[in-house]
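Quick one, probably user error.
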């Protein structure tokens, strides 16, 4: 299974960040598999943002829940992250990942910078 993130590398403060993860070699509707987003700000530990499971149920980090939305397009085998009202503190490398008993498969990551 391979995952590839795509989206803008620069977002202005107060705007909404939107990233897409394209999955190949496996279906996002496979039972017992969860697909998620993880970010790592510079100099900090990775932070789990949220996930979507095979049935389309979503799960969010409580600290980000008010600003985060994860959705999917099963016809394209993609899932998407939207983070609203971004600020410079949201600058990070954003990863999409796959979990079946652990986040074992990650995309290469995409740098997102929030700046005017």
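Nope, works fine. Designed sequence:
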């Amino acid at each position: 299974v391979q995952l590839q993130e795509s989206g803008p590398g620069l977002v202005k403060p107060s705007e909404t960040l939107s990233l897409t993860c394209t999955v190949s070699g496996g279906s996002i509707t496979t039972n017992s598999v969860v697909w998620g987003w993880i970010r790592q700000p510079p100099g900090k530990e990775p932070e789990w943002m949220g996930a979507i499971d095979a049935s389309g149920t979503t799960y969010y980090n409580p600290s980000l829940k008010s600003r985060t939305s994860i959705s999917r397009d099963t016809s394209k085998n993609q899932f998407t992250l939207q983070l609203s009202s971004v600020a410079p503190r949201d600058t990070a490398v954003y990863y999409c990942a796959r979990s079946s008993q652990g986040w074992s498969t990650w995309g290469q990551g995409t740098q997102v910078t929030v700046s005017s």
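DSSP finds no helices and eleven strands in the chain.
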